[in-house]
Amino acid sequence: MNDVRSELVSDPVSQPGSVAAASSDLAELDAAIPHCTACPRLVEWRERVAREKRAAFRDQGYWGRPVPGFGPHDASIAVVGLAPAAHGANRTGRMFTGDRSGEVLYRALYDVGLASHPRSESLGDDLTLRSTRITAPVHCAPPANKPTPGERDTCGSWLTRELELLRPTLRVVVVLGAFGWQSLLPIPDSAGWRVPRPRPKFGHDAHVRLPATDDGADLHLLGCYHVSQRNTQTGLLTPEMLRGVLHHAKELAGLGDS
Length: 258
What we know:
alpha/beta; 38% helix; five-stranded mixed β-sheet
C-alpha cells in the first residue's frame, strides 16, 4: 500500500481502482486523480482540447488533466454532476468552473449559503464551500460530453473511494442529471448504505433515503435536473428549482440558515 501511495503525485495512474483504494484520505485521493491515464480516449481528447483551446481562451493555460473534487473533506452534502466541460473545468482545474453551467450552480450555492461567493473563477480565487463538496462520476472531459459506460465504470473507483472517505459526515447527495444518478447508485452499498431494490428512478425532486448498513447515519439522495446550458436556457431547470433542491439538502443535512 505504501508503494502505491508513493506514486500518487509523480507517476501516471493506469489502475485507478488500486490507487483509489490505497488513498487514506481525500487529500491523497485529490492528489492522485489528476494523474489518471486509464481511459485512452479521454486522455487523447482532454489533451487535444488543452492544446488547441477555444479562441476566447487562447492566451490561457489549460489544466488538461482529470479534475478532482472540490470542497471540504468533512462535507455533509455532496453535489455529483456528470464530467468536466472541455473548456470549463478542463481549462480551470476546478469542478463546474469556467462555463455557464458553473455560473448557475455556484450562484445557487451562494444564494442558499453554501458558497462564499456567487462565482467560481479559478483555482487561485478565494472561493470556499460550506459543508459541501462537488464531484463527478467521470473526472475527464469526454468528447461531446458523453462518457462511455466503460469509462464511467473505470472512473467509478474514484467516486466510490470519495464517498467512503466522506462517510463519517456525509448526509445528502444531490445528483445532477440521470447519468450521475445511474453512475452513483451502485456505489453506496460498498460505502455503508443500502440501495433499495428495484433501484429508484431519477427525477427532479426525487428523494430516496438509503438506510445505513453500519453504525453511521442514513444517506439521502436528491435528484435535480442537470445545470446544463440547454436545461437552464429552455427553463427545464430554473434558478428557483435549483435553490429549492439545495434548500432541501440543507434541511436534510441539519445545516442551519445562513
